[in-house]
Design brief:
The chain starts with 5 loop residues before the first helix and ends in a 13-residue tail after the last helix. It contains 18 helices and no strands. Helix 2 packs across helix 6 (150-158), helix 8 (186-219) runs parallel beside helix 18 (441-457) and helix 15 (359-379) runs antiparallel to helix 16. The protein is mainly α and 470 residues long. The longest helix is centred in the first third of the chain and has 35 residues, at 73-107.
Amino acid sequence: MLFNSIEFLLFAAGFFAFWPLVRARDNPRWLYITTLSFFFYGWWDWRYVFLLVGTGLVDFVAALAMVRWPARRKALLIASLGSNIGTLMLFKYLDFGIANASWLAHRLGSDLAIGPIGIVLPVGVSFYTFQSMSYTIEVYRGQLKATHSPLHFFASLSLFPHLVAGPIMRASDLLPQLASHRRPTLDEKWEGARLIAFGFVKKVVIADNLAPVVNQAFGSAHPSQSTTYWWLILAMFAYQIYCDFSGYSDIARGLARWLGYDFNLNFDHPYIAASFAEFWTRWHISLSGWFRDYVYVPLGGSRRGAAIGYRNLWITMVVSGLWHGASWTFVVWGALHALFLSVERWTRWPARLATVPGGRWVSRAIVFVLVLLSWVFFRAESIDQALAITRILLDLPRLTLELAPEIDRNALALLGLIALRQGWVAWRTDSKSTPPWGSRPLFESAVVVVLLVAAVFLRGAGSAFIYFQF
């Protein structure tokens, strides 16, 4: 069920209509959240609800077993992690592994040929398995007490706003909130409405209007050979994926506010980052924090010397790339960011450049251009296509101010408005200034009304959120 659909609007209206009747008591509240969230998830395919339940039950039981038999905590954690990772391997990476094994066998002279099984990837499986894993990891570490109520656990795991595309809410953040209920204040309800309005505009006005142009560029049988064209297309994709995903996160956070809960910020204007380290504190914050705390730090972080630190950085970023999809293009995308972060850590070039007047703006430009180059591999259909586009992008003598005839002028105008807004946000961040209108209720009310009108009349062709495929 898509947030940007009539079905979801009807579902949300029904959910919130009866919410006041059940929210005051624990078991009715948890049962209501779990049941309706399972319905929300099962709207795509009811059979995958059993996968969600199975994944959750393994971790719920494992956590209780850790309390009952503390001496076996490590074995129980390994079993829990193995179950979750095994689920991902089966549904997400099995066909990828088969294809690569067949390729390798062919290169070695074998006639072995195994066709793909064609398992359909369940929506949101990468998100809820990571959240479920966080529960057992935190119970194992002693950071969280195991809950004895399956309804409490499944209400946290399946809460519909974050279920299929995040933010990835750690158990220690959400379970305590769900243990009781606090009615949202009027200010929190208004903040929720504002977040939802901004989220819908990001998705249906910006992302969905840029998507057809980007899809046509990458799907063309005879792609343009214009360097200018591809740099503009990449800029459009950069803002398409940002507005698509951050739009979902904004809507999810707004819905949570209406329920009386608080979801963590997931995006914080990543394209104003002046370093790659800063970029990863602003982009997909819940995922980058998850990999930092549950992969990079357990590997040793940078505590055991520079060489081990670089190794752990590369492992974390490559695994992060592979998390996004079973394709070598995602692996290369993760490796590129590992390279950028490694060079940055070794040379400390952003800090050096910051001492020069205007240096922070130059750093922003460098980071943004390199992020665009890495997006080629994230979006491309194959390594060959990504390399072909990269060659065109790096043919800088052919970069001109003359627009390619293939470029869509409406999308270009939208891109220009977005760029102006990002520049204003960057300036405001550096100057630590606030808008002259402050937080005047009348102005904010007018903005929300304008955003909602824009979402209705300026929307693009409806499409699923990009991160549903991950």
